[in-house]
Amino acid sequence: MSFDTQSDEESGSQPSTPKQLNLLRVLRDELEAMGVEATLDEYGYVMGSIPSNTGKDIPSIGFIAHVDTSPDASGKDVKPQLVREYDGGDIPLKGVKGLFLKPSEFPELLHYVGQDLITTDGTTLLGADDKAGVAEIMDAVQYIMEHPEFKHGEIRIGFTPDEEIGRGVVKFDVGRFGADFAYTMDGGEIGELEYENFNAASARIAIQGRNVHPGYAKGKMKNAILIAGELNGLLPVEQRPEYTEGYEGFFHIISFKGTVEEAETVYIIRDHDRTKFEEKKKFLSKCVKFINDKYGAGTAKATVKDQYYNMREMVEPHFFVVEKARKAIEMAGITPKVQPIRGGTDGANLSFRNLPCPNIFAGGLNFHGKMEFVPVKSMEKASEVILNIIGLYCQDK
């Protein structure tokens, strides 16, 4: 069964696309069928609750994943391919003639030789970001409900819409969710554990040009398309995503539309360091001012909105939640890869609302595009890590 759950940044509704509710309703119903008390509210949040079976005073632990997929690529009519015992060669994506997922271009494929992989067919993204996380949480819940001998404290389950457009937990009721601490299952390759993420903002820049018949345009025309390109050229080339890694931030142009008369560009701005993040926003403002000084006041107008901040400052005072996850990953026979997220999760905003929420791998790679894939074993291990975390909190009491 395939669900198109692509979110839409242009929409003002919550959730941004009603089609996300199709999967959210199914998840609520499946939780209830397993014996879990579950609700779906008007904003598209599924919350499930499993009571403690220990009688001990154990923190309530939440696990969260988002159902929406990125607007960057189509999520309609996804046709996944199962590649059995991957042999290390090029994988044909059979929906597009001549298209291959190649280890020469994506060398991380070679880490999974001999494993079963789920890929796209080349016509859409896969949706492992974050439907892999959803599946892993549901798998762990099924195990818990089928094994009453498995000891656990209170467990909270959360499935959210609109994470990909930065609005995943805007109306999420942390108090009603009822967790003391939580984990998002929204990371990448196996072993990833993250408690740092980008500070993030979006920037929408409107350019007002002046169209004049091109035969008589000398000294009169202001081509909004060219002015938008000129403004983009003012931003540092070395701070584009394709030239950055680790803790390096970036300016990323994600859309452009326009005519000679009017144009609009949309950017995302990212940096782990809050000071550098604020400097980036100020630099963009200086670029807009330069354009207005050159072409006239009102030529360029920027609307900048902060989306989320680096969760590190909110998680570090409760660092044991990270250590629990690290140990749980080790118990699954995996070497933890503690690293900053070059992106964001629902956990970033939740951490700033007093729900410390590190991020754990969901197993997928090459998110947001047609080259996305996820190893089956990585998903199985992620589910195992969830159970390990739950068990570790029990052992403390």
Characterise the protein shown here.
28% of the residues lie in helices and 22% in strands. By secondary structure, the protein is of the alpha+beta class. The chain has an eight-stranded mixed β-sheet with strand order 1-2-8-3-9-16-10-15, covered by helices on one side. Strands 12-13-11-14 form a four-stranded antiparallel β-sheet. Strand 5 and strand 6 form a beta hairpin.
Please provide the ordered H/E string of secondary-structure elements: HEEEEEEEHEHEEEHEEHEHHEHEEH
Q: Indicate the overall shape.
A: globular
Q: Characterize the largest beta sheet: strand count, sense, and whether it forms a barrel.
A: 8 strands, mixed
Unreliable runs = none
First and last CA, distance: 42 Å
Overall pLDDT, averaged? 96
Number of strands: 17
Q: Return the structural class.
A: alpha+beta
Percent of residues in β-strands? 15-25%
Q: How helical, in percent, are the residues?
A: 25-40%
Radius of gyration: 23 Å
Distinct helical segment count: 9
Strand order of the largest sheet: 1-2-8-3-9-16-10-15
